[in-house]
Design goal:
Layout: E1 13-15, H1 34-50, E2 57-60, H2 65-77, E3 81-87, H3 94-108, E4 112-117, H4 126-141, E5 147-148, H5 153-166, E6 179-180, E7 183-184, H6 192-202, H7 218-234, H8 238-267, E8 268-269, E9 285-287, H9 288-292, H10 296-309, H11 317-328, E10 336-338, E11 345-352, E12 355-362
Parallel strand pairs: 2-3, 2-5, 3-4, 5-7
Antiparallel strand pairs: 1-4, 6-7, 8-9, 9-12, 10-11, 11-12
Helix pairs in contact: 1-2, 1-6, 2-3, 2-6, 5-7, 5-8, 8-10, 10-11
């Protein structure tokens, strides 16, 4: 993972040496403070559960306190660590911030550090577009290794609150997983204050991103206004409680997903039983009878998986309930258009001859 690679079109390629950093000389000995030991234990536990012995990892390093602390601990606990620094080029001086982060990575003992300059689009707003560009760059540059991200317990609590606001059910408030290949998050049980203290213990001054203080971003207002107010009103412990809730829901969700997959497999209609190849060659139909007898929670999970497998995008609770009504509240209604398809066609789920179908339909036609 030592070479610089092109992550996205127009990316500026840079190595740690180009950023003005000396060659790495191995992991540094870390002071055994409470904060350092807490972060190290978290990284060690994550590696023990998800990482093969001797495997390498990449760390997404922004230069902020969370990713700096993660990088320092990973070098000691894992050993083979390559730092990937994304330069979004949204702020003046971002190139120097990225170069400083690369230098810090090598000083902490990373075996390489690369700056990945990206072009940030506009779809979904600046925050969402930057995230899309960042993850694409990291995924391209990781050379098959897991990428560790510095999300903390505080980030998890904010994610759960955002999910609650969307109101899309239990899945939306499950928060972030400790490992969802290729993304690893060893610090989900660590408070943000602990990573800051670790940086202080290491004599490192983390970069303070101005965007993290800008009230135009919803997550910033959650962090600086909503969560502190909840902590005050409810007597503390809110962030930890939200993180525990997310963990419990992920555990429950994993079981439900297995059961929903079994239901989906049982409900699939073989092409021969459906009368040979359908009008849409790639169509996979489901048995209405089998789905109708299943519990609602499992049925809707199965429907969601089926729609996503069929190419649906940006599914909402409204979509799922409308498709579910084709099974449980059939009144002769037309099909349900879901996001996805192509520029000329849209995906439509419909009830036909006791089967649930998903087909592309010309966008100039109505499904109802």
């Amino acid at each position: 993972m030592g070479r610089a690679v092109r992550a996205t079109p127009g990316q500026r390629e840079a190595t740690g040496a180009e950023a003005g950093s000396a060659a790495p000389s191995g992991p540094r000995r870390l002071p055994e403070t409470a904060a350092v030991l807490e972060v190290r234990r978290a990284v060690r536990a994550w590696a023990g559960e998800y990482l093969a012995e001797g495997a390498a990892v990449a760390v997404g390093l922004s230069g902020g306190a969370d990713s700096l602390a993660l990088t320092a601990a990973a070098v000691v606990e894992i050993g083979h660590v390559d730092a990937l620094i994304v330069d979004h080029r949204l702020q003046e001086g971002s190139g120097q911030v990225a170069a400083d982060a690369a230098a810090a990575a090598l000083a902490l003992g990373c075996r390489s550090a690369r700056v990945l300059a990206v072009e940030v689009g506009s779809e979904g707003g600046v925050e969402a577009a930057a995230r899309t560009a960042r993850y694409a760059a990291l995924d391209t540059a990781r050379d098959g290794a897991p990428v560790l991200l510095g999300h903390t317990l505080d980030d998890q609590a904010e994610t759960v609150l955002l999910g609650l606001a969307r109101g899309s059910g239990g899945r939306s408030i499950q928060g972030m997983a400790a490992y969802a290949e290729p993304w690893g998050r060893p610090l989900l049980g660590i408070r943000r204050a602990t990573t800051r203290q670790m940086c202080a213990d290491l004599g490192r001054t983390p970069h303070e991103d101005p965007h993290n203080r800008s009230p135009e971003f919803t997550r910033v207002r959650l962090r600086t206004e909503a969560l502190p107010l909840l902590e005050d009103v409810l007597g503390g412990g809110v962030a930890a409680a939200l993180a525990r809730t997310a963990e419990q829901l992920r555990e429950d969700g994993a079981v439900l997903d297995v059961l929903a997959d079994e239901l989906l497999e049982a409900a699939r209609v073989p092409r021969a039983a459906a009368g040979g190849r359908s009008a849409a060659d790639d169509e996979v139909a489901l048995s209405i009878e089998i789905l109708a007898t299943a519990p609602a929670a499992l049925r809707r999970r199965a429907i969601r998986s089926w729609l996503l497998d069929g190419g649906a995008k940006a599914l909402t609770d409204k979509h799922l309930r409308a498709v579910d009504a084709l099974i449980t509240d059939w009144r002769g209604q037309g099909g349900v258009a879901v996001g996805g398809g192509s520029p000329d066609t849209r995906l439509v789920a419909a009830r036909e001859h006791g089967r649930l179908t998903l087909r592309g339909q010309d966008r100039c036609l109505r499904s109802d």
